[in-house]
Predict the 3D structure of the following.
Amino acid sequence: MTRAEAWLDAPRTLAIATLPVWLFVLPWPLALVATLLTYVLWALAAPALASRLAVRLVQALAHPMVQAAILLVALSLLARTGRYDAVWAGLGAFVVLRLGLLARVLDPLLARANARLYPLPVPDQVLRAFLVRGALKHGIALPSLGEIDASVRETWKRIQRKR
């Protein structure tokens, strides 16, 4: 998975990764709300926070076996303490997140908010952020970045007008 793709999937990845934490520290209904808020807030902030270092962590956490292992341990510990309601809530939330059901519901709403927050569509914004950070890291000047930016903006405006 490329950096940009992993970063675009980061809201789901981080919601899954923090779900066990929320289940341990909060009653299960509040844990589900906290997981939802994690998803929403990260979906809104992620395009501005694209980081080459952080994406490595996100890529590791995105691996299905890592997610399953974390959740298996967490749910086992919750079951051992008799918090079966939290186990079922966590299992349900995991399935909803892994299958992308939450994304299907929330992403159209979040797209409107992101359109107001960022000058480019989110995938372009994230890709641009990684390109700029990579260029800065390697000392590469990007004089054509303004041209690319203007071209993408113009294309985006044409698409928006057609809708």
Observations:
- Residues 1-119 form one domain.
- The chain has one domain: 1-119.
- The CA atoms of residues 157 and 163 lie 10 Å apart.
